[in-house]
Specification:
The complex is a heterodimer of chains A (about 280) and B (about 575). Chain A is mainly α and about 280 residues long. Chain A has a three-stranded antiparallel beta sheet, covered by helices on one side. In chain A, helix 3 packs antiparallel against helix 8, helix 4 runs antiparallel to helix 8 and helix 6 packs antiparallel against helix 7. Chain A is rod-shaped, with a radius of gyration of 50 Å. Chain B is mainly beta. The chains are: A mainly alpha (about 280), B mainly beta (about 575). Strand 4 of chain A pairs antiparallel with strand 17 of chain B, so a sheet runs across the interface.
Chain lengths: ~280, ~575
């Protein structure tokens, strides 16, 4: 356009204008205006989608930003992207203490599950033996007391077809045998309950083993929120930049388009004027 | 100056029995230094014992052996049978001894104990399967062959058996001397079922160890005699719960066959003499009463005889307890009517009797076993032979042992002994050289005076009716109830009641004495007395006077007499002695 303005201001146009020359000039000017519009379109394309254009800039501006979240107990959550493949990778690591705790609780859980999975009969026997161990001193005291009483009554050596020994000895033996049977049944019941309890403990331990991880994930939320906000902010910034960039570019294009229109209009007018004088009255 | 003849009467001499324990000088004249073949009679006098009236006429099965045990079998139906053992056989019967030994059952010892229990009689001896007899089976059989027998094994072949509290109890086995077994209730052949059982006393003996010798039952107590100790259980009617109530250390029983239950007491021979449980019942403890305190040394010496066989019997009718040391042929007779001041029974000695075992029949007869078979304690001969009754006083001082005595005359009062010769002896100052004098006791005749005869009519005796009268003059004064004189037969009995068997009346019209027999009045003259008892002239009392001689500070007086069918007792001995100077 500069040349056109310069050309107009210089008065060379009037002087240059002359018959067909002037029309040719007008056509040339219109042609130039036309060509400028096409150039403006290319410039707009290049500015928006071309290399280094707005799209590319916005793409760079809106790319994923790796971030890391660190919990209060030292656990970390990191989100990265492979620069080559673009594959997203997140890394989550609890603190060494938490890892130790997790390992311990998981080991315990395994232990409890193992115990729960063991055959019950051996456990029943063990419990029964422990109950018998607890009962034996009292039974021994009762036996000794009975023995003493029998000795005092001179009946230690009594053997009967009806009772085996004395009726008292039979009663004591029956009571002890009943207690033994009860202990056996209790041992069976207790072993079953214990098995259930161990399974529950295993489950509890298993749950507890993942608590650090869960807590880390829970702690990640605020971090993720912050990252999201940052991402949103960046996105807004990019959007604003894009809009601004596009507005500027659009203004430029409008301006160029205006200039091209002017040039085209002027050139057309000149051409029409020049050609009209030739081919018709001017209006 | 002539000295006064002092008359000292020994009233009922030796009525306290033998005393060989106290000093002869200090002894009460009521004791005897020796009292052989004597008893204390019902009047407290020393008297000749009864003799052995042998019942057995055929002792082929006994052979040259001796009877070692006698038992009368009785059952609830009243069946009885006399069993005895000897010559390694089980025998039965009294006049003829029949072999009841089961077939293929070999016996080499006669140490049986026999008990009645629940319509059976059981035979127990160590190491031998027990035998049993009942009236239904009719034969002595091995216990294991009885239907339902259980637990009849060698372990329970005991030497001691007791029937008490509804069971049989046995103890003293070949290898086990501490266990008592009891049978099932009322079943003497079941030793493993029901309420049968056993008790081992090895941890009960008060001295730590002993061996069971005998068992006895008294006052709901089970008394278990060891050799050196005794344990007493209460509540033996339920053996499973019976409990020890007393133990006695240091006093045991020498032999199973010395234990006798007297109804109120249990007598047994310990190592130190005859003992009883009399005070136990009263005091609920065991202070032992010595019942042979007057012959302790003698009896201990006899007990120590090797292989001695002891036999004893308690005979309430005669009120004595006999303990015989059969190998040494000595029997002590303890009078159980009462005790002396020291708690001892009055005791006499029966030497050389040949009695080897005893058995009391339910009717009170005392059966005696010997080499002659079975005899009865009755009469006054030993198998139709006389035996020697002997009494010796302790040393008599007449109140002062320091003064010289001149024995002048003996004037004994003897009761009975018809036709016997009594030999009085005396010696001085513990000498063994006796002076003697023989006294013939007059023979006691039979006397008739007025109502001197007891006719026994068989027609009346069946009703238990006796009569009194003089058969010779045809007089019967009483035949049961004399209703009075009538001219015709009365129709109403005594007191307006019905006529009873044996009622009698005198028919004044016919001059006939009628007696009511089998619902009709019968002329008594038509009946023939089965026997006629006669009155004697009462108790024969002899008071012979014997001149004595010699002198000394102490005097021993004795009496010996052969008892040959007549009883003899010493009522008193009057001693006339001249008391001389002080030595």
């Amino acid at each position: 356009m500069g040349w056109f303005e310069d050309w107009i201001k210089s008065g060379d146009a009037v002087s240059d204008i002359g018959g067909g020359a002037l029309g040719a000039a007008g056509l040339a000017l219109a042609k130039k205006g036309y060509e400028d519009v096409g150039e403006i379109g290319e410039r707009a394309y290049a500015g928006l989608a071309g290399e280094g254009g707005l799209a590319e800039q916005l793409r760079g501006m809106l790319e994923f930003q790796p971030y890391t979240v660190t919990s209060a107990t030292g656990g970390q959550f990191g989100m990265t992207q492979d620069p080559t493949t673009g594959q997203m990778t997140y890394q989550m690591a609890t603190s060494p203490e938490e890892q130790a705790l997790q390992q311990q609780t998981l080991a315990n859980a395994g232990m409890f599950f193992n115990q729960a999975a063991m055959p019950v009969d051996q456990r029943e026997q063990d419990i029964f033996q422990r109950m018998r161990t607890a009962m034996s001193p009292e039974e021994e005291r009762q036996r000794l007391e009975m023995e003493q009483r029998m000795a005092a009554q001179g009946r230690l050596g009594v053997r009967t077809a009806q009772f085996g020994g004395t009726p008292e000895q039979l009663a004591l033996a029956k009571a002890q045998e009943e207690a033994r049977n009860t202990a056996m049944l209790n041992a069976m019941q207790f072993a079953g309950q214990e098995q259930q309890r161990q399974a529950q403990l295993g489950t509890g331990m298993l749950s507890a083993g993942y608590v650090p991880q869960a807590q880390l994930l829970a702690a990640l939320q605020p971090g993720m929120t912050a990252a999201e906000r940052q991402r949103q902010s960046l996105s807004e910034q990019a959007g604003t930049y894009g809009q601004t960039y596009a507005s500027g570019l659009q203004a430029l294009l409008q301006s160029a388009l205006g200039q091209a229109n002017i040039a085209g209009g002027v050139g057309g007018s000149i051409a029409r004027a020049s050609l009209g004088g030739l081919f018709g009255p001017s209006t | 100056m002539a000295q006064e003849i002092k008359s000292i009467t020994l009233v009922a001499p030796a009525f306290k029995g033998i005393n060989t324990e106290d000093s002869p000088l200090a002894q009460d004249p009521s004791f005897a230094e020796s009292a052989d073949n004597a008893v204390i009679d019902k009047r407290g006098r020393i008297a000749a014992r009864k003799g052995l009236s042998v019942l057995t006429t055929d002792k082929t099965e006994l052979g040259t052996g001796k009877l070692r045990a006698i038992k009368e079998f009785r059952d609830n139906l009243g069946n009885t049978k006399i069993f005895s053992v000897g010559n390694n056989k089980i025998l039965s019967g009294t006049t003829v001894l029949a072999d009841e030994t089961p077939g293929s059952y070999t016996i080499t010892s006669d140490n049986w104990k026999i008990v009645n229990f629940n319509d059976n009689v059981y035979f127990f001896q160590r190491g031998y399967e027990p035998l049993v007899y009942n009236n239904t089976g009719g034969a002595v059989v091995k216990l294991s062959t009885v239907a339902g027998a259980a637990g009849v094994v060698a372990a329970m072949y005991g030497n001691e058996v007791l029937a008490a509290y509804g069971r049989l109890w046995t103890a003293d086995f070949t290898t086990d001397k501490s266990t008592v077994y009891w049978s099932d209730l009322l079943i003497g052949h079941d030793w493993t079922g029901g309420t049968s059982g056993s008790i081992n006393l090895s941890k009960v003996w008060p001295d730590g160890f002993d061996e069971i010798v005998a068992l006895s039952a008294h006052n709901n107590l089970l008394i278990i005699f060891g050799k050196h100790s005794i344990v007493v259980y209460e509540g033996a009617d339920s053996p499973a719960t019976m409990r020890l109530v007393d133990t006695i250390a240091g006093v045991g029983c020498v032999d199973r066959d010395t234990v006798q239950y007297t109804g109120t007491d249990v007598l047994f021979l310990s190592q130190t003499g005859l003992r009883s449980f009399g005070r136990t019942v009263q005091e609920k403890s065991m202070p032992m009463s010595s019942l042979s305190g007057t012959i302790t040394t003698d009896i201990i010496r006899l007990i120590r005889g090797t292989g001695e066989i002891f036999k004893s019997v308690y005979h309430p009718e005669e009120s004595f307890y006999l303990i015989t040391f059969t190998n040494q042929a000595i029997t002590f007779c303890f009078d159980v009517r009462g005790t002396l001041e020291n708690g001892a029974y009055r005791v006499t000695r029966w030497p050389g009797t040949g009695f080897t075992c005893y058995g009391r029949k339910d009717n009170g007869d005392l059966l005696i076993g010997s080499r002659f078979g079975i005899g009865q304690y009755t009469g006054y001969k030993d198998n139709n032979l006389p035996y020697r009754f002997k009494y010796f006083s302790p040393e008599l001082t007449f109140g002062d042992a320091s003064k010289l005595k001149f024995l002048k005359r003996l004037r004994p009062t003897l009761v009975g002994g018809s036709g016997a010769n009594a030999i009085f002896t005396w010696s001085y100052d513990f000498g063994t050289l006796f002076s003697s004098a023989e006294v013939g006791i007059r023979s006691q005749g039979r006397s008739d005076f007025n109502l001197s005869e007891y006719p026994v009519y068989s027609e009346l005796s069946g009703y238990g009716i006796s009569s009194t009268g003089d058969v010779d003059i045809g007089e019967v004064v009483v035949v049961n109830k004399f209703l009075g004189d009538f001219t015709s037969a009365p129709t109403i009995g005594s007191g307006g009641g019905a006529l009873l068997e044996g009622d009698s009346y005198f028919d004044t019209a016919a001059d006939i004495f009628y007696v009511y027999i089998s619902s009709a009045f019968v002329d008594l003259d038509t009946l023939v007395p089965a026997s006629v008892g006669e009155f004697s002239d009462g108790e024969l009392v002899s008071r012979n006077s014997i001149n004595a001689n010699g002198s000394g500070s102490t005097i021993t007086i004795g009496l010996e007499a052969d008892i040959n069918g007549e009883e003899l007792s010493i009522q008193d001995i009057n001693v006339l002695a001249l008391i001389g100077k002080t030595l």
